[in-house]
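TOKENISED FOLD:
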Amino acid sequence: MAEKSVYEHLKSEGVSRREFLKACGILVGAMGMNKLPPVAASDLPPHLARGAKVVYQVAEALESKPRVPVIWLEFQDCAGCSEALTRSQSPTLIDLVLKQISIEYHETLTAAAGHQTEENKQAIMAQYRGQYLLVVEGSIPLGADGAYCTIGGRSAEDILREAADGAAAIIATGNCAAFGGLPLANPNPTDAKGVQEILPDKTVVNIPGCPAIPEATTGTIAHFLVFGTLPELDELNRPKTFYGVTVHDRCLRRPFYEAGKFATSFDDEGAKKGWCLYKLGC
């Protein structure tokens, strides 16, 4: 992987300065960044000046930072989170892969296979030790000494521990990687675990969902790309930007909830008036 900054790589791909700044704006939206002060001595309205400040900081960072190598591991999964990521719009997958990050290992997306792919992964982890981003999809089975999920003759747990040891940051995308997901459901025959259970001494960013919301995954990657750090997390290690507010908090029926006005059936007068659906299984 060439040691070019993100901006240098974009220029070599024929991207103009205007298009670069537009991409920075997309990243700002993906990260949900809106708390910085506005640009000083600006004639822009406050809300636009504030956005310009963030875009400027993102652009400044990308002008000097090299693309981030990514190792993406899949274990007990259906590849649904990877599939969802290919539908991501903020930023799009192609922007991430070809312009801002470098996915060096991904079983579903890579063109190579077998020994060639595994050897490339080992080389990247050695060359960029302490620099690469590790993304994990799928739960890790411990049952039968890990025999329920093996890659290249090695257990998922062994592969995960090795990759995590040299990673700059770890992201568990989807319910399975974050908390065990469907494989962990009773009776949990494979003894499935989430990434954090396997790596209790490391900070793991959880992006739950089935599949994970692609913008939450790409937005978290974008934050690491720009700042070299993980976003602020809640008590479940989820990014607050994407999981800090519930649907209930923003529901249009919330005032009726506060007023104690609830529909008791889907065709009663309360439902027709837009009252809260809490008692109907909201």
In short: The chain is about 40% helix and 10% strand.
